[in-house]
């Protein structure tokens, strides 16, 4: 559907779930894709390059940027899809430890900040590029044990808008996508942890559009925003959630 011929793309979280669907769709469009995960537990879609690193550390992000330079010779598209929250045994906001906060902020927010800091200047200098950050649609209604996750994603969206404003004059676009409940390994694990916790989202069992999302539903929005069809869209946030979490 999209033409990414000659484009070099880096997709974090590209070994499974939403990230893997993004990788597949970018490959279908003709992109040269480097998929990134922490482990080799899952293999990325066939045809993609693959790198493992722990994105929660500055060293891990720096090593990844070096790999991207070496393997791709530059990056035209960045998709930060790696994310999620570790189990929080306390079940409360005040029970989150310093380590819980650091871990979740590192993966969901700072990994994107650090990766963009290393790779976006090349995009700016070439005057071309698209960045998509994967947030969450479930951002506003409070879920106390996941305060760190919601805060990290809120920060990611705010940061995306600032970066979009800064890079727009250079022709580089930055957007965010917020998935609702999507059938992925990480999504299922998180929902099991949410079950029985103080969930104040008031969300229904089934999203208004009648089903949970599939990885390709979310990837379609991500890849659209990364494509030239979205060439006049920057600083935007797009919910892909079956209508579950309207934002006023
Ligand atoms: N699924 C949902 O319902 C849902 C809802 C709202 C928002 N989201 C967001 O959508 C994005 C993708 O979610 P998903 O459900 O597709 O995730 P997933 O199934 O848990 O997959 C996560 C991917 O990120 C990688 N990853 C995790 N920690 C990493 C680390 N420290 N360093 C490098 N890579 C790491 C994983 O690699 P390994 O396999 O090696 O760990 C895997 O490739 C996330 O940002 C998530 O917050 C998802």
UniProtKB/TrEMBL annotation:
Keywords: Oxidoreductase. The keyword Oxidoreductase applies. PANTHER family: 3-OXOACYL-[ACYL-CARRIER-PROTEIN] REDUCTASE, SHORT-CHAIN DEHYDROGENASES/REDUCTASES FAMILY MEMBER. Pfam families: adh_short_C2. NCBIfam families: PRK06523.1 (NF005095). GO terms for molecular function: oxidoreductase activity, acting on the CH-OH group of donors, NAD or NADP as acceptor. Residues 178-209 are annotated as: Disordered. This is Short-chain dehydrogenase. The keyword Acetylation does not apply. Belongs to the short-chain dehydrogenases/reductases (SDR) family. It comes from Promicromonospora citrea. Gene3D superfamilies: NAD(P)-binding Rossmann-like Domain.
């Amino acid at each position: 559907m999209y033409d990414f011929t000659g484009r070099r793309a880096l997709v974090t979280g590209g070994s499974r779930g939403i990230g893997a669907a993004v990788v597949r769709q970018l490959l279908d469009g003709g992109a040269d894709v480097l998929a990134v995960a922490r482990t080799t537990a899952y293999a990325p879609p066939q045809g993609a390059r693959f790198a493992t690193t722990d994105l929660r550390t500055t060293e891990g992000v720096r090593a990844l940027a070096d790999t991207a330079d070496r393997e791709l010779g530059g990056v035209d598209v960045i998709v930060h899809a790696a994310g999620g929250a570790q189990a929080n045994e306390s079940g409360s906001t005040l029970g989150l430890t310093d380590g819980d906060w650091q871990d979740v902020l590192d993966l969901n927010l700072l990994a994107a900040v650090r990766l963009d800091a290393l790779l976006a200047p090349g995009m700016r200098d070439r005057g071309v590029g698209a960045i998509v950050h994967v947030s969450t649609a479930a951002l506003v209604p409070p879920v106390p044990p996941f305060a760190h996750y919601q805060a990290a994603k809120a920060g990611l969206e705010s940061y995306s808008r600032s970066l979009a404003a800064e890079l727009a004059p250079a022709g580089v676009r930055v957007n965010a996508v917020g998935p609702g409940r999507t059938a992925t390994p990480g999504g299922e694990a998180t929902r099991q942890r949410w079950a029985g916790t103080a969930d104040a989202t008031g969300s229904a069992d089934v999203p208004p559009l009648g089903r949970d999302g599939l990885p390709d539903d979310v990837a379609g929005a991500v890849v659209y925003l990364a494509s030239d069809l979205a060439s006049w869209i920057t600083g935007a946030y797009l919910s892909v959630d079956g209508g579950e979490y309207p934002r006023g």
